[in-house]
Amino acid sequence: MGINIAIDGPAGAGKSTIARAAATKLGFIYVDTGALYRSIGLYCLEKGIETTDETAVSDVLSDINVELRYIDNIQKVLLNGKDVSEDIRKPECSMAASNVSAIPRVRAFLLDLQQKMAKENNVIMDGRDIGTVILPNAEVKIFLTASPEERANRRYKELVEKGNNPDYNELLAEINQRDYNDMHRKTAPLKQADDAILFDTTTLDKESVVEELLSIISSKLGDK
Ligand code: DC
Question: Which fold has domain 4-218?
Answer without folding.
Answer: Rossmann fold (3.40.50)
